[in-house]
Amino acid sequence: MKKYSAIRFCLCLNLLFLSGCWDRKELNDRAIWLATGWDVAETGEIEISGQIVIPANVQTQGGSGGASQQGFFTISSRGKNVSDALQNMQTKLPREAFFGQRRVVFLGEEFAKRGLKEYFDVNQRASDVSLRSDLFVVKGGKAKDLLTVPNPMEKSPAVTSLKEHRQSGGRGDTAYLNFLIAANLDGIRPSVPVMEMSSSIEGEKGGKVDSPNPKVVQLAGVTVFNRNLKMLGYLNNEENRDLLWVMGLLKKMTISTPQSKGGSSINLTKIDCKIEPIFSQKNDQVSFKVILKGAGALQESNSGLDFEYSENLKLLNKKFEKVAEKQVQRTIEKVQKEYGQDIFGFGEAIHRKHPIRWKTLKDNWDQTFPKTKISVTAQIKIKRIGMEGPSVLFKDSEIKK
Amino acid sequence: MKLSGLQIFWLMFTFETGNMILLTVSPVMEDAKQDVWISYLIASLLGVLIVYIASKTALLHPKQTLVQFSRSVFGKWIGTIVVLVYLIQWYSVIGNILREFADFTITTLLPLTPPWTLYVTMLLLMIYVTYIGGIEGIGRCSEVFGPIIILSIVLLVIFSLKDVETINLLPVYIDTGIYSIWKGTLTPLAFLGESVIILMLASFTDDPKKVVKSAVSGITLAAFSATIVALCVLLVFGPDIPAKLRHPIFDVISYLSVMDFIQNLEILAVLVWILSVFIKLSLYFFLSCYGTAQLFKMKDWRKMIWIAGIFFFALAQFFPDTSYTFGYMKTYWTQYALPINMVGIPILLWIVTKVRKKMKVSGTM
């Protein structure tokens, strides 16, 4: 075996040259990119803005306190498309942008209206960008402005909006995947959540970050997109929740009955929805039955009903059901009338349950959907009533048993 | 050089799984859409059948490799042609896999590294394991790597459970139909059919009784893993997006997010995949060297390693671009290698051997 020792030595020598130093990337050569903003620049080009972590200012708790500085900064530049804009951006960014931690994408209103189809490919062609990402349209503004709004609780606007989205029971970081899936299907149109700039105290103009009433970013409903991935318009927060409920994506929600009839609220935590397509026998017209299901804990009831009696619970269940049915029905009708786009996925319900009939329906679905009859029924159950039977504010004589 | 039954099992599993999971999901989804699992199940059944026939055939000729017994079965000339058909497959696939390996690693991990460094590193590893250990060395490696691959697949399935949407399975069959499902079946079947290399491997075993059992169960496990993974991709992403991605499983892994802190696992997945590719490449490397040496009756098959190593390097460099490797898989591999090398010849070998044995028996009576 001695004769091979020279070969072995050569093989070992190779290790010195071949141990992958081509792509050495130090952490301090990288700019960690948290969120991307897409806008249309005044010149008509694309403007890309990014939110980048300032590593020195992102301290863990218990560090040298005092007036801490911002943990991020925002940078933007324009170009023909994203890659061009990024190349232009790199001229003022000392480190290479790293997209592996990007979790949020903001679209300026104008950009969303212009349509995404011609610009959005870059997100998936790059290997380091994950499909897990949140997606927002910025209502009445530019994404780059929203990316400059910090939040006193969080390190950056990106984290803020992600957490707000999750706390409100919405899609969270699956929004981008949801958008892509909807863009690929015939029976559902994409809908994208909305963020807007607002102030921490309602009705007053927001001040600086360290003032008691700082500017904040706020979840503001959802947008409707059409087949060509162009934005058509907005729905508000309440309608957004109805939409998510019908889509089966909602995680939590509070329903309140009107104050005049003894205002009560339930916090739904087990939420589900079933869409049943029904075909009439005469002319094969399709209509839908939506069955909303929800269960949760009673939050408040200002009515004097004693909930230790099951009749009272049933009564309240009925009231909640009525409110939910009305609300969701109104939202569906509004979408049908104003936008005519099936963002709920009724078409997909036919596709999955009656695939053969769907083949004839799918080409004209945009025309069929606005004229389709949709009825909503709700089944709501109060699972827990909280720490009191009747309200403690009512006298014995006022309590209805 | 001796292989135990267990080594054949892990060899078969490791050799199939990595590339099959990475490369087949997207083309199958393109054809079979949400019925991708039906395609994989059919492919699994047929794949197991292929390896069963191949290992049975190999056992009819104990202690002989394909190169030796094909000439005794078909005669000198046809036998040599049969061997050449296999050698073409083995030689060409190594260049292709090397290319694919470098392409994928560069895209995901090392964007600035020139491809030839990756070819050279991988080739050196292959040469090392083949030269020092031969088939036994590769078998032992696969005994270590196989369980790692299984573990990663199990973890992948567990981690993706919370993102699963069972509704993605519907509607079954109506959207695609039998033709699309069958078209989808061909790609994974062409990968599972590679298990015909058992025709060569069976001669190295120390316990011929176990060959059929270990080979079949190894392929079954590989087919099962690939089916589960394809199902996983379908349930998380639905049928339309993965069909357009080149490596959907990579995107599923980068999509995973467990409790917001287990994220960006794709790099680990690439490393596990490289383990499998290493086994696959070394196995083909060994087969082409050993087969060629036997064909030309060389005394020391190890001498072939040096010639082949240089040849494969040149071949990998020669593949012009990505669409070519894709075309290789779509045309040569599924349209020629599958019906001829994986189905046709093993069945022919089996039938002719049986007939000859019968004739011999009746002749002596």
TrEMBL record, chain A:
It comes from the Bacteria. It is found in: Membrane. Keywords: Germination, Lipoprotein, Membrane, Palmitate, Signal. Residues 221-386 form the Spore germination GerAC-like C-terminal domain. Pfam families: Spore_GerAC (PF05504), Spore_GerAC_N (PF25198). It is a lipid-anchor. Residues 23-196 form the Spore germination protein N-terminal domain. Belongs to the GerABKC lipoprotein family. This is Uncharacterized protein. It comes from Neobacillus kokaensis. The lineage of its organism: Bacteria, Bacillati, Bacillota, Bacilli, Bacillales.
From TrEMBL, chain B:
It is found in: Membrane. Its main location: membrane. The keyword Transmembrane helix applies. InterPro entries: Spore_GerAB. Coiled coil: none annotated. The chain crosses the membrane at residues 7-25, 37-54, 74-94, 114-132, 144-161, 181-204, 216-237, 267-292, 304-320, 332-352. The keyword Membrane applies. Keywords: Germination, Membrane, Transmembrane, Transmembrane helix, Transport. It is a multi-pass membrane protein. Belongs to the amino acid-polyamine-organocation (APC) superfamily. Spore germination protein (SGP) (TC 2.A.3.9) family. This is Germination protein. It comes from Neobacillus kokaensis.
